[in-house]
Automatic annotation (TrEMBL):
Residues 17-155 form the Ferritin/DPS domain. Gene3D superfamilies: 1.20.1260.10. One of its GO terms (molecular function) is oxidoreductase activity, acting on metal ions. Belongs to the Dps family. Pfam families: Ferritin (PF00210). InterPro entries: DPS_DNA-bd, DPS_DNA-bd_CS, Ferritin-like, Ferritin-like_SF, Ferritin_DPS_dom. PANTHER family: DNA PROTECTION DURING STARVATION PROTEIN, GENERAL STRESS PROTEIN 20U. This is DNA starvation/stationary phase protection protein. CDD domains: DPS (cd01043). It comes from the Bacteria.
Length: 156
């Protein structure tokens, strides 16, 4: 059945492509955060273990919301490691870094998600796609706040 939500198919495709990149970044960040949750050690163990759990739990919900928006626009959401690796701007971390390096890597990944989300706005604005723009705004707020909280652990 045809989709008639007031956004042209070409515009929906552009937005879905951008959201697919955001989905890949978000899922990659989810995996990185969960990995660090499992493997963190040192004097900040308890704090970071709990903080990382809170973060990956939030990211798991976000992945679903982003994928569902892609589907609502009429396109298939990427869902394989191969697709995520091709689409993501966030690279996997080799080995198990020290706790402070984990924090630094997560700050960088959170900021990558913000940049990806921000890059999709022009397509949303051009198509008057407020639901996608709202989703992007929410994601940027979460990622910017999380990056700030993580960054504050490295100061002082």
């Amino acid at each position: 059945m045809q989709i008639d939500i007031g956004i042209k198919e070409d515009d929906r495709a552009k937005i879905a492509d951008g959201l697919s990149r955001l989905l890949a970044d978000t899922y990659t960040l989810y995996l990185k955060t969960h990995n660090f949750h499992w493997n963190v050690k040192g004097p900040m163990f308890q704090t970071l273990h709990l903080m990382f759990e809170t973060q990956y739990t939030e990211l798991a919900t976000a992945v679903d919301e982003i994928a569902e928006r892609i589907r609502a626009l009429g396109f298939a959401a990427p869902g394989t490691y191969k697709q995520f690796a091709e689409l993501s701007s966030i690279k996997e971390t080799e080995g198990v870094p020290e706790a402070k390096e984990m924090i630094k890597l997560l700050v960088e990944a959170q900021e990558s998600c913000v940049r990806t989300a921000r890059s999709i706005f022009p397509a949303c604005e051009a198509a008057a796609d407020e639901p996608s723009a709202d989703l992007l705004t929410q994601r940027m707020q979460v990622h910017e706040k999380t990056a700030w909280m993580l960054r504050s652990l490295l100061e002082g």
